[in-house]
Each structure stands twice: as C-alpha cells, then as structure tokens.
C-alpha cells in the first residue's frame, strides 16, 4: 500500500479506477438554503452514492489497488457502518472474503447492509482500542489484508474523488468547501482535491461537539482524543490518524463545532426542503455553515453530504 501523500496524478488515477463502479452523484442547489445562509450552496449528494455513502470511493480504490496475493486471504477492517459497507461491497465485486469488525451498537441499517454484501461480521465494544484489537486477532487468524477506514492513502485518494467531481461539476468557482470530520479520510482527501484542482478554494471541517478531537488536534498541533464522546453523528466518533492529520493541518482553514441539536435541525431541513435522506453525520457540514453563516455571507460553498444510511425506526425528529 502507498506510503506517500496522494498527488494530483494519484487522485486522477483513483478516479479513473473507481469511476466504473460508482455513481457520479448529483450536485444539487436549494434557494431555501441560499436564503437561510446568505450564500450560494452546492450540495454534493454522496447520500445517493453506492452503499449510501462516499465511503464506497475509498473502499473500492483500496481494494482495486490490491494484488491477487493481497486479496487471496480476504480483507478486513473495522467500522461503525459506512466503511464496513464499502469494504464488504468492494470485496464482493472482486470475489474476496470480507471480515468486518463493527461496534455492537452500530445502526441496524448498516449491519444489515454489510450482511447482505456477504461479509462476516464480528462485534466488539465501541472503542477504537477494541476495534483494532479485534481486527488484529482476525488478521492473525486468517491472514486477511487490513484496510484502515481512514488512515490509508488509497482510501484518502478514493475519498478525494468526491471533491474532484464537485469542483468539475460546479461551473462557478467555489470559495469554500465544507466536509465533516471523523478520522479525517474524507476531509484530507477533500483538502488535497481543493489544493490540486481549485487552489483558491478554502476547506473547512464540521465536527460534533460530542466528538471534538479534530478541533483540539488542529489547535495543539498534535493528535488529540475528544474529552468526551457522545453524539448522534455515529460516523464521526473516531480521532485523526498520523496520515490524515498532517494533511488536515496543512490544508484545512478551520474546524467548526456544532451541537447535536444543530445537526438534527440541519438533517430535518434537508429531508423537508430538499426531499433527500441524509444521516446525522452527513448533515454536519450544513449545520456548521448555518451556525457560522455570518462568516460565509456571499460565498459560493460546496457542501459534502456524506451519507444517507439512517435507521428509519430511530429518527431523531
């Protein structure tokens, strides 16, 4: 696997590799949100992506980049849901066995999807340490190739293709792009694509107050853990990695915190006004813009809606 930060050429190659397997998701606009935010918003709808999330891009790029030797004993990863689905989906496409470690409190909709792609699930308690320990045990037992959910340059390059498409499909120059941050795979890929394909565009992160590690890392210049973890945005619970953090530190303008109440309000707005299903983690970018709209007045803003895998039996509104 690559040990160098993705270049422009790396991201272009990743896009070419995954394009036959993914949707080129639409970029949507909304006069309601433009008025609400006093800006012009362009929504990259990765909630309409294969597996219902942008993670399909990184999972496919990582697995399609593996050799037959690396695939012969299968692949393994840990994830609360969307990366788990991505690896299960991609492994099924190439005929490889997938061993997925999921926290025992993962959303049922995501568990069922992973099962439907034919992966073998092992559950663990929901801590980063327990996830990694369980994956290590599986790797030792099976010889499967581990694909980290975000701290992996092939994954980062795959995630970067979403912003590459956004920049290509919005005819006007984007002043700002906002993406949510958990482990930083999407955010670091977003920052790299902005740097290579639209260098004047600034990148901001949205982060839940209940998983506020990236903002601390950004301020202290070292990887931090959140002081407490409690948020509805289940896809953003993990902290940054040693591959994602340096990219974010160098190329992201700021990390903007949002409350769960703001996330839920943004999610509901998206359902009601744009008629699209977006999960809590996917609404964080919009929540960050609404909370900080004075800073973005008059700007053209790309908004990454990262996923739409919602447990419909547990809607927060």
Written overview of the protein:
The protein has 2 domains: 8-53 and 153-314, Rossmann fold, CATH 3.40.50.1100; 56-146, Rossmann fold, CATH 3.40.50. Helices cover 43% and strands 15% of the residues. The protein contains 13 helices and 10 strands. The strands form 2 sheets. It has a 6-stranded mixed β-sheet with strand order 1-2-10-7-8-9, with helices on both faces. Strands 5-4-3-6 form a 4-stranded parallel β-sheet, with helices on both faces. The N and C termini lie far apart (43 Å).
CATH level-1 class of the largest domain: Alpha Beta
**Total of domains:** 2
Radius of gyration: 18 Å
Strand order of the largest sheet: 1-2-10-7-8-9
Compute the number of helices.
13
Overall 3D geometry?
A: globular
Q: How many angstroms does the end-to-end distance come to?
A: 43 Å
Structural class: alpha/beta
In percent, how helical is the residue content? 40-55%
| Number of beta strands | 10
Largest sheet: 6 strands, mixed
Q: What is the succession of H and E elements?
A: HEHEHHEHEHEHEHEHEHHEHHE
The CATH architecture assignment of the largest domain turns out to be 3-Layer(aba) Sandwich
Quaternary organization: single chain
* Average pLDDT for all residues: 95
Strand content: 15-25%
The CATH topology of the largest domain is given as Rossmann fold
Q: What are the low-pLDDT stretches, counting only 5+ consecutive residues below 50?
A: none
């Amino acid at each position: 696997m690559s040990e160098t930060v993705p270049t422009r050429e790396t991201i272009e190659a990743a896009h070419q590799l995954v394009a036959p397997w993914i949707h080129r998701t639409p970029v949507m606009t909304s006069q309601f949100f433009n008025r609400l935010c006093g800006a012009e918003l362009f929504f990259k709808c990765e909630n309409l992506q294969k597996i219902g999330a942008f993670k399909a891009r990184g999972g496919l790029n990582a697995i399609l980049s593996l050799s037959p030797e690396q695939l012969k004993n299968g692949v393994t990863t840990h994830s609360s849901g969307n990366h788990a689905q991505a690896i299960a989906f991609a492994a099924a496409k190439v005929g490889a066995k997938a061993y997925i470690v999921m926290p025992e409190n993962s959303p049922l909709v995501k568990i069922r999807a992973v099962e439907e792609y034919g992966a073998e699930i092992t559950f663990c308690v929901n801590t980063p340490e327990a996830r990694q320990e369980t994956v290590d045990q599986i790797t030792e037992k099976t010889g499967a190739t581990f694909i980290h959910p975000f701290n992996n340059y092939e994954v980062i390059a795959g995630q970067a293709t979403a912003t590459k498409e956004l920049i290509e499909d919005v005819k006007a120059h984007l002043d700002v792009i906002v993406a949510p941050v958990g482990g930083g795979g999407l955010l670091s890929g977003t920052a790299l694509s902005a740097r290579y394909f639209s260098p004047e565009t600034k990148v901001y992160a949205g982060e839940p107050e209940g998983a506020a590690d990236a903002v601390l890392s950004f301020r202290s210049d070292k990887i931090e853990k959140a002081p407490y973890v409690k948020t509805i945005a289940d896809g953003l619970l993990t902290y940054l990695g040693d591959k994602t953090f340096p990219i974010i530190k160098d190329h992201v303008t700021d990390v903007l915190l949002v409350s769960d109440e703001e996330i839920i309000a943004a999610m509901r707005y998206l359902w009601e006004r744009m008629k699209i299903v977006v999960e809590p983690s996917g609404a964080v970018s919009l929540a960050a813009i609404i909370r900080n709209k004075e800073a973005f007045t008059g700007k053209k803003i790309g908004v990454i809606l990262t996923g739409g895998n919602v447990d419909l039996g547990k809607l927060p509104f």
